[in-house]
Automatic annotation (TrEMBL):
GO molecular function: DNA binding; DNA-binding transcription factor activity
Alphabetical UniProt keywords: DNA-binding, Transcription, Transcription regulation
Annotated TM spans: none
Organism: Caballeronia mineralivorans PML1(12)
Matches recorded under InterPro entries: HTH_MarR-typ (IPR000835), WH-like_DNA-bd_sf (IPR036388), WH_DNA-bd_sf (IPR036390)
Name the record gives this protein: MFS transporter
Domain of life: Bacteria
Ranges where the HTH marR-type domain occurs: 8-144
Length: 145
């Protein structure tokens, strides 16, 4: 089913516009909240993905987070420069780069759950539990997960 046509498409009323605007607002607010940890919201995603063992290589992280490999490389460079993660070549396949948090990276990642929920909860404060779960369900459906 097509929900948009040439006749009814209005930029500011489109789902893409609203999702992008919500994303931009969350990024600005999350980045401000994470400033004391000296990481960005995108770097937070990397640290938590490694902590939760959702990914172990740059390619896997790119897939999990929906970030292109070029941007991923630049973000990993920054995290490595901050001594939050380290890269190492796989012993089985030298083409594969494995990622691991450093002790400092683990400490920073452990502080994220003390900060991030406040940013998200501020935007969800007027949602009932049912509405919150429905939003999550619809977003998963939108992402085709």
């Amino acid at each position: 089913m097509n929900h948009y046509s040439r006749d009814n498409f209005r930029l500011t009323q489109s789902i893409g516009f609203m999702i992008n605007k919500a994303r931009n607002i969350l990024i600005v607010e999350m980045d401000a909240a994470l400033k004391e940890l000296d990481i960005s919201s995108q770097q937070m995603g990397i640290l938590l993905s490694l902590t939760l063992e959702l990914a172990a290589t740059p390619f896997e992280l790119s897939k999990v987070l929906g970030i292109d490999t070029g941007l991923m490389t630049r973000m990993l460079d920054k995290l490595e420069a901050k001594e939050l993660l380290q890269r190492s070549r796989s012993l089985e396949d030298r083409r594969v780069v494995n990622l691991a948090l450093t002790e400092k990276g683990e400490k920073v990642a452990a502080q994220i759950p003390e900060i991030a929920p406040d940013v998200l909860n501020a935007h969800l404060k007027n949602f009932s539990k049912v509405e919150f779960e429905e939003l999550r369900r619809l977003l998963r459906k939108f992402l085709d997960e």
